[in-house]
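Now read this:
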Amino acid sequence: MRPDQRGPGNYADGMPDTPPGGALPPPPTAPAAPPPGPATPRMPLRRVGWRRFLALAGVVLLIAAGAVFMVFTLGESLGAEALLVGVIAAILPVPVLVSCFLWLDRYEPEPLKYLIFCFAWGAFVSTAISLLVNETGAKLFQNWGLPSALTAVLVAPFIEELTKAAGPILLLIFRRREFSGITDGLVYCGLSAVGFAMVENILYLGGYGYRTGVEEYGPATGAQQVIAIFIVRILLFGFAHPLFTSMTGVGLGVAARSADRRVRLLAPIAGLLLAMMLHGTWNLLPSLAVATGQPVIVLYGYIGVMVPIFFGMVGLAIWLRAWEGRLTERTLPDYVRAGWLTPPEVAALGSLGRRHAARTWARRVAGDGGVKAMRGYQFAATRLALLRDGMRRGLDRKPAERDRTAREERELLDAIGAYRSFFVGRDPQAPLGVWDGHRYHLRFPDGSQRAVEAPDEPVVPIPVVLAPPPPPVGHGPAGWYGPRPAAPWSPGG
């Protein structure tokens, strides 16, 4: 593959099979574990000063206070038995919904602590604030002689979407480098919405379902109402909260990858307003149905408005998921031409199928340790592609930010070198080779060696030794760091 070309779609299928290049030498012994170092290189850590420590402690205390408040409030209003039933029923769909969002994030998984933070924020902080504001709004409407149902249309959409988005917004402000695009915005906001919906479902399933049924006709009726509400609220409409908040996620993702300050400000606001309007429309449908006596309004709104938007967002999410894979093929050729990577390595990162084939090959030549090293290599390469894309977009304006980006680029390149050295020369079916940024220098078992141009299709799926590249001339990575691992033989010798 030429450095500026993309590999064909069927490359992953043939990846474990490589040209033999002559009689096979005895297979080398692979180490039992990957090279030392973190399995998933992250951004360079900032020093935790007292201000950051106080901010972190404040966030933890806020989440804890929200959790205590919600447990006490729900327990007091529902009772222990109804609360237990509501918790069990509301938790059932959570693993499925969380898995869907984690599936979107497979190319470059986000740190677990930030995922937990968003989920906990939505479950406890957002629900606590929304409950207080909604109850206050309902009382005000009653005092003004207005129906309290207006709360669901005029108050709930605004406070709920604002508080659900507040956690991801904090991440964007204080951990902008953990936002690599719209996919991350969808994941963070989606998990916050899933946490919110889980706690809200406890109230509906345990209170309006089980407790009301038990008080009227007994436990059997309570169980029936729980099942009915579960089917309607979770199986049919369980996507509602994640769908609303995903609009904000799109805005946050656009802002995270833009160097324009106006876009950084307006995109989240536009996404948040769209989420509020969509949520308000959703809540308006049953209110109109009750006021007009036409329940078919809900059906029309569901089929004509919500379902198309839902499938549109699903299509966007799937496209964005593949975008991260294609991004490596657009940005990493800079490092190929500079001699840091080889063309087949870039092709092997372009899709999840190709990455799976690479891990299959790694297991064949190096066992379980090889798979672990290949996973770390793929993660570091994806981070490098995102970092390079950010350089092109001009995301770092301050000198300190540019210096930090250069340090991270060096750390990622060092990590990639360590991971790839774990595989170099370990496949007995491939000739020993060196990539100098322009062509391969191959040595065959019979002692012959020759320079070979990069073929149109990547046929060598494994990392080969890298020759030390010359200094960059007008292209290549922003940073240039140190010597590469020494080749076992000189390309010219």
